[in-house]
Every structure is written in C-alpha cells, then in structure tokens.
Specification:
With about 325 residues, the chain is of the alpha/beta class. Helix content is about 45%, strand content about 10%. A hairpin with a 2-residue loop joins strand 6 and strand 7. Helix 8 runs parallel beside helix 12.
Length: about 325
C-alpha cells in the first residue's frame, strides 16, 4: 500500500454550511480531483462522534469510529444493513469494510494525538483502499452541515486546515429544505439559517480569507469557471478537468435535489426558484429575520404588497413568544 505523506493528516478541508445550501455539490465537484481525498458521505464527526468519544481510550474510540464513521463500507444495494436506511442508492461494497478498518487502525495507532486523528485516519483509510494516496495528494476533504460551529476546534487541531463555507439565498434554501423537513416553518428556518451563516461570517473574519472561504451557491452555479478557479487558488491545487464533472466516490453523481431534478452538471436552474415555491409573506418573513446578512451577501429583497408586509412584520415580532410556547408544548 502507498504510504501517507507525513503531514497529510494535518491538511484537511472542511465543507461547511446549512443543509441544502449546496455543500453536496461542492463535495461532488472536488471528489475526483487527483490531489484530494474526498470522503463520500457526511461523518457528522463533531456533532455525533466527538460527544460520544469523551473519556474513551484509543481502542474504544476506534470501535466507535467503526460504527459511526466507516460503517458506510458495509452498505450495498443487494443486502442493505440498517444504517443504510434512507440511502438506498449508495453502494460501497467495492471497498470492503475489513480493508478500510485495517487501514484506519494502522493510521490511528501511528502517533495518536487527539480525537481528530480518528477522523483523519478514517478518511485517509478510505483514500488508501481506493488507491488515491500518493506524493501528489495535498488534502483530505470532509463535508457535514454545521461544521462551521466547530471552526475553533478545527484550527486548534489542524492549524493548516481550510474551510469552505457554502451559503445560499435563504429563500431558495428554505424552499428546498422544507421538502425534507415540512415541520420547519419559515421563522424557525430563518433563525437556524441566520445562526449558521453568522457563524460562517464570523469565522471568515476571525481566521481570514486564506483559511476560511465564503462561497455563494449562486456564484458557483452562475459563473462556475470563475468561481472554481478561485476555489482552486484557495486550496492551492491544480486546475483539473474533473472539476467540471461532479462525482461521488469516483462515480457519476446523480445530484441531491429535493425537486426530483435530473442532474445535468452545475446548473443555475435552482436559483430563485423560491419565487414560484414560496408565498410572498413567507419570503418576507425570512428576509426580515435576516435583513443584514442578506444585504452583506448581496441577496435582493422581494417587493410584497402592504398587507403581506404587515403580516410578515407581525409574524416576526411574535416569533420569540411563539417559539417559546412551541418548546413548552412539545
């Protein structure tokens, strides 16, 4: 097996942002680049693995990683295990769990320092089994929504890390996300989107543009070549034709649309879909709750009529009380 570069484990790239913002598209764009190892699924490392790993020794952490990080290599479409529920289209049976487990353990036992080494060991084990690790490999890439909340931990463990924060017009983001979570009303979504985006903006200011890159979904889909050249410069990788052909684990990517769109590459078709999907009042609620950020991110407000605007203002004003009541009654 190809040996790892000594410093490769300390060169992660984390894709951050709110769910359904375009983070999966960015991962798919980077997936087949020869200088990157891109993990094909979300690990939810900081929100799932890390809290469960507190107080565990290395062996116990590795056992936990087998259940929460590399379990995907037991997925197959012919005999799907329980953990594959919700992901019937995924099949990683060409890479055996046993091989990935062995490679992860070999890497983890080599100068373990902190729990983040378990994540890097899992991702690099995947790359090793796929034959992706070589002298030209510069980064490993992990994508999970809300990685932005853990930027301080990321840069403490990996000072040379890079973060790509994907932001999308919250009205389009909500139009997509509510199809997966219909219980989320515009007020609840707008507050959640605001927390996520504010965290990203604060990270960009704190860590600087050379480490934390803010990427608008609309720029990526509207001017893909220009935006991708900027992303290549940010990561200090070479331009490669694979960037124009999104993949997952090296296979053609079918997309991640909640509208059953047939994926045909990087497309601007989903942009401003909210104008057909959202009522004027709902759109205005989202705008009012994120007025400053929308302006900072160059998203233009809508023009509701007076009645719609007044109703939206009333909903925003009463939202804190209604949200508290919502928690009490649950």
């Amino acid at each position: 097996m190809t040996e790892f570069s000594p410093d490769l484990r300390d060169k992660p790239v984390f894709i951050c942002g709110h769910p359904k913002a375009g983070t999966s598209l960015v991962r798919a764009i980077l997936d087949s680049h020869p200088q990157l190892i891109v993990y094909p699924e979300e690990t939810v490392f900081f929100r799932r693995f890390l809290p469960q790993s507190v107080g565990l020794d290395l062996e116990a952490q590795l056992e936990l990683a087998e259940k929460t990080l590399i379990h995907i290599f037991e997925w197959n479409q012919d005999d799907p295990p329980p953990s594959q529920e919700g992901f019937p289209d995924r099949d990683y049976s060409s890479m055996t769990f046993v091989d990935v487990r062995r490679a992860m353990r070999e890497r983890a036992f080599d100068d373990y320092r902190h729990p983040g080494d378990i994540l890097s060991a899992a991702v690099l084990a995947y790359g090793r089994v796929r034959g992706q690790v070589g002298a030209e490999t510069l980064h490993w890439v992990e994508k999970s929504p809300y990685n932005e909340y853990f930027a301080e931990q990321i840069f403490t463990w990996w000072p040379e890390a890079r973060c790509i924060h994907v932001v999308r017009d919250p009205r389009d983001n909500y139009s997509s996300y509510r199809r997966k979570h219909p219980s989320w009303n515009p007020e609840f979504f707008a507050a959640n989107w605001r927390r996520s985006t504010q965290a990203g903006l604060q990270n960009a200011r704190r860590f600087g543009p050379e480490y934390y890159y803010f990427l608008r979904y609309e720029d990526l889909t509207g001017s893909p070549e220009v935006t991708l050249h900027r992303l290549v410069d940010f990561l200090h990788i070479d331009w490669h034709p694979s960037l124009a052909s999104p993949t997952r684990a090296g296979e053609d990517w079918a997309g991640n649309s909640m509208f059953a769109d047939q994926f045909q590459g990087i497309s601007a078709a989903p942009v401003e879909r909210w104008k057909q999907e959202l009522g004027a009042q709902d759109a205005r609620v989202i705008e009012l709750m994120n007025k400053t950020i929308l302006n900072d991110c160059d998203y233009s407000p809508s023009s509701p009529n007076l009645v719609q605007s007044l109703a939206a203002h009333s909903r925003v004003a009463t939202w804190p009380f209604r949200n508290r009541l919502r928690h009490v009654t649950q």
